[in-house]
Amino acid sequence: MKGGILRSVLLIVGTFLLLVRYLDPVNGIMLLLGTLDLLTRFLIFAVCSFSKLRLLRFGLFLLAYSKVFSLFSHPLCNFVESGIGVAGAFVCAIDLLLFLKDDLHRQLLDVTVNDSLTGLLNRHCFMVRTRRLLKELEARNQRAVMIFLDLNKFKLVNDRHGHRMGDKVLEILGKRLKNAVKESDLVGRLGGDEFAVFVQNASRVQAQQIVRRICESISTPIFVDNEVFNIGVSAGVAVYPEDGKTLEELIEKADKEMYRVKYNIVTEGYAPQNE
Q: What's the pTM value of the predicted model, to 2 decimals?
């Protein structure tokens, strides 16, 4: 970056020295204002020289470089200044439009892919990606597990403290859940206080270990606005392909197991199943 700025300075100074040998500079206040304008444009270019937008940097340099020609009174200089200035402005505009387009695309993608509250995959995206992975697993004859999660005592948070507080708690729980699994695992919020985790190449025993890790993370007290919340979680596991070969079958099986844990087991958490 420093080398680029130095080369730009040399080019601007060199152009000025070359022109001053053959042409007369503008007089008085116009020369002062033109010089200040040139310095300002170059300062903006120098600040933005660390930007990753290469076209923008080039466009800003053209805008600064064009101002050199405004320091001279020859009509041809005015023409060159206008041409280079227009080119610089055009390049800047194009690069900014491309950047805004990419940024808008990322925002739209984030909205269509992620749950706006927890940052986890939303229900639609989780279902689509899981179906795609199931087809790949079937072709490779590999196993996987579906973990269905339902929060315990979360309804009390909404009832006693309002949905705004509930949203804050959910946001924290979403981060904990994401950190409790591997980056390659699919984690989605299916709705309300229900979540699902899909893990490739995993057995029932491995699923039990994942569930224990999730339960430990979720059950850690949550501190929000001077309030302390103790949230639990019930989990059910379904193994592909033993418990189901389709996404719907796996979710149904895991959901039933979760309710068995939630209502028939005295201790909260996940009751391990036998192999």
A: 0.60
